Amino acid sequence: MASMASEDLAFFYFVLLWPAGICKQTQGLKCCKPLTGEPAEKDFYLKGLYPSDISGNYLTGCNECSFNINEISGLEEDLQKYASNITCPSTNSTDSWKTLWETYGVCSGLGQHYYFKKSLELLKQIDMLSILSKHDITPTTQHEHDYSVAEISKAIKTETTYTASIKCSSNQYADYELLEIHLCFDKDATTIIECPVLPIFTCPAYVEFAAYSFKDTASKDANPIRMTNKEDSDDVEAMKDCNGRDDLITYSGIRIGGVLGVFGGVENEAIRWLFGAKNGVVQGLFKAENGVAQGLLQSLWT
User: Fold this and answer.
1) Do 131 and 155 form a contact (C-beta atoms < 8 A)?
2) Beta carbons within 10 angstroms of residue 167's beta carbon
3) Three-state DSSP string of the chain
4) For residue range 33-67, what is the model confidence (pLDDT) as tens digits?
5) Which of 24, 119, 192, 288 has the fewest CB atoms lying closer than 10 Å?
6) pLDDT beyond 80 at 103
7) Model confidence, pTM
C-alpha cells in the first residue's frame, strides 16, 4: 500500500535545480560536498517532485508516514549524486531527503521507494543539460557571458513541447544565475503536461548559466553499518502503514526489525548466514538470558 494521496492531488510540479544558483548566493561559485557520497559536478539536480492541487498549491503533510532510510535501498548512489545538499558547511543529505518525503512525498500517493525512484527517473528522462546544449546553451566559466531567459525557455519548449518556468537567484553584487526549472507532470507522475498553473518568477532578461565546483572539503566515508536507534524503532508502525508490509522479521521466535537495520540492508553472505544460521551458539546469542550476552547486545545499540 502506498502513502495516501491527497484528495486534492491534481498534478505534480517537477523542479530541477542548477547547483551554481545556490552556491553563488553566498559562496561565489564554490559549493561544499556533503559528508557522504559524490555529487554530480556538471548536471542538474533534483529539487523535488511536488504534489499540487488544481490551483497550483503544494500539498503538504497529508499523513505521518515517516522517512525510513531502508526504503531507499538501491537508490542511495543516485540520490547522493543528483539530490545532494551541497550548501556550506558540509552536511548530510539524508535530512534533506527526509524533509522532502515527510513534507511532500506523503501526499503523492506513492510509496517512499517509488517516490524517489520516480523522481530520479524523470530527471534522467528529461536530461535538461542535453536539451539546453542542443541550443548552444552550456555552462560557462566566463562570467560576462549571459543567456537570455527567453532563449532558455524556448529551448525547453522546442524539445519537450511544453512550457517551463525559470527561476533565478542573485547575490549581493546583483549577479543573476539560473537556479530552477519548473515543469509539470500528470497526477500519476508519468506524463509531462502543460502546467495548469505556471509559476511566475521575477528574473532579468539575461542570467548566467555558470559552471560550478566544490571546495576542497574532507568527506567522511559512509559507515556501512548503521545502528538502529529509538527513532528508527518508532518509525516501524508508520512504515507498515506507508509501504504495505511489515519489515520486522522473526528469527528463533524473536521479532527483530532494527537488527537488520544495523547492517543497512547490505548483501553480505557472511551476515546473511549469521542471521539465518541454525547454529546453536548464534541462536543462543539472540535468545540469551545470560547477563553477559545481553550486555553485549545492549552495547550494540549505544
Assistant:
1) yes
2) 20
3) CCCCCCCCCCEEEEEEECCHHHHHHHHCCEECCCCCCCCCCCCCEEEEEEEECCCCCECCCCCCCCCCHHHHCCCHHHHHHHCCCCCCCCCCCHHHHHHHHHHCHHHCCCCHHHHHHHHHHHHHHHCHHHHHHCCCCCCECCCCCEEEHHHHHHHHHHHHCCCCEEEEEECCCCCEEEEEEEEEEECCCCCEECCCCCCCCCCCCEEECECCEECCCCCCCCCCCCCCCHHHHHHHHHHHHHHCCCCCEEECCEEECHHHHHCCCCCCHHHHHHHHCCCHHHHHHHHCCCHHHHHHHHHHCC
4) 888 888 998 999 999 999 999 999 999 999 989 99
5) 288
6) yes
7) 0.72
Closest by Cα among 186, 236, 250 to 65: 236
CB 50 within 8 A of CB 86: no
Domain 11-214 is found in CATH 1.10.10.10: no
Bridge partners of 49?
14
Take residue 57 and report the three cell numbers written for it. 498549491
Q: Where are the domains of the chain?
A: 11-214, 230-300
Sequence-distant (6+) residues with CB within 8 A of 2 are: 109, 110, 111, 114, 242, 243, 244
Grid cell at residue 227: 545502528
Phi-psi region of 253 (alpha: psi -120 to 50; beta: other; left: phi over 0): left
Residue 217 C-beta-side C-alpha neighbours within 13 Å:
22
What percentage of the chain reaches a pLDDT higher than 90?
52
Highest mean pLDDT pick, 175-179, 259-263, 271-275: 175-179
User: CB under 8 Å to 231, separation ≥6 — which residues?
Assistant: none
